[in-house]
Design a protein that fits this description.
about 280 residues; alpha/beta; TIM Barrel; about 45% helix; binds flavin-adenine dinucleotide
Length: about 280
């Protein structure tokens, strides 16, 4: 049976698995609100080395129990081949048909990098184990991955994931639409034809965003950084500015042909649903 095909436009919302009973309850409320927007799917992140293995699966199963499409992430860093095979079989055993396959990042203090070095090897393992049972999405980086020595090398790494059998890609977040359009052109030039869905990070809290961005190599443009810094503790102004900037970015991306949007919700419904309504989706 072939993996499910992507619909014409793909709108998805990403969550992380909550760690506490209160977090589980809060995420249920978030999901209830976001489900009204009728996204294509909800995805749930996976901690390096399987640290969230149970929480990721439990959250995806809850999503499916509520009648929605749920896609677990799976990262291969700090994992053995055998443990990855187990997780893949577990997902398949539950009838899950969609995976977001990643390398992941080694948490500081963890010494072992695992048996698979790159996400392309994980995509290959998924295909070896389960053929075309899963629709497989991978990550890509319009502003390039921070560990890539050269942009061309990162593009080649992206192509390796597609050649290994990935069906689609979701980008790291960015605030510069031109970087996305340029990246898509470059990928198409290499013969990559899968949908490349922009990842969107709503802006809620400047210090948290600056921390994330420093770690993952996503640039906060100078004009945005200065404005956000200038608001200091004025959270209402940060949120209002963030909503304007991110809505405008999404509108530009969709008008320029982006095949959907993937929202990094951080388990909050408010910013994503406001942007969604402003876009008139
Ligand atoms: P890879 O594609 O393996 O690339 C990693 C680096 O290796 C890049 O610099 C690449 O250029 C380089 N590279 C790849 N192949 C080669 C090669 N053959 N030779 C030389 N260099 C090579 N992290 C999590 O832990 N859990 C999650 O659930 C999660 N979800 C994510 C979802 C999305 C949509 C995105 C964009 C990221 C997510 N991440 C997640 C973060 C991700 O794991 C990190 O960005 C990680 O640093 C790289 O993962 P990757 O799958 O892109 O790795």
């Amino acid at each position: 049976m072939a993996a499910p095909a992507a619909p014409a436009r793909n709108f998805s919302f990403e969550f992380f698995p909550p760690k506490t009973p209160e977090g589980v309850e809060r995420l249920r409320a978030t999901r209830k609100q976001l489900a009204q927007l009728n996204p294509t799917f909800f995805s749930v992140t996976y901690g390096a080395g399987g640290t969230t293995r149970e929480g990721t699966l439990a959250t995806v199963l809850e999503i499916r129990g509520e009648g929605h499409h749920g896609a677990p992430h799976l990262s291969c860093v700090a994992s053995t081949r055998a443990s990855l095979r187990e997780v893949i079989a577990e997902y398949k055993g539950h009838g899950i048909r969609h995976i977001v396959a990643l390398r992941g990042d080694l948490p500081s203090g963890l010494a072992t990098s695992g048996e698979l070095r790159y996400a392309s090897e994980l995509v290959r393992l998924i295909r070896e184990e389960t053929g075309d049972w899963f629709r497989v999405e991978v990550a890509c980086y319009p502003e390039y991955h921070p560990q890539a020595r050269r942009p061309q090398q990162d593009l080649a790494a992206f192509k390796a994931k597609i050649d290994a059998g990935a069906d689609g890609a979701i980008t790291q977040y960015f605030y510069n639409a031109d970087a996305y359009f340029h990246f898509v052109d470059q990928a198409r030039g290499l013969g990559i034809s899968v949908p490349i869905v922009p990842g969107v990070m709503p802006i809620n809290n400047f210090s948290q965003l600056a921390r994330f961005s420093d770690a993952c190599g996503a640039e906060i443009p100078r004009w945005m950084r200065l404005k956000l810094e200038g608001f200091a503790d004025d959270t209402a102004s940060i949120k209002a500015f963030g909503l304007d900037v991110v809505t405008e970015l999404c509108a530009r991306l969709l008008a320029g042909g982006a095949p959907g949007l993937h929202f990094y919700t951080l388990n909050q419904a408010g910013p994503t649903s406001t942007i969604w309504h402003r876009l008139g989706l």
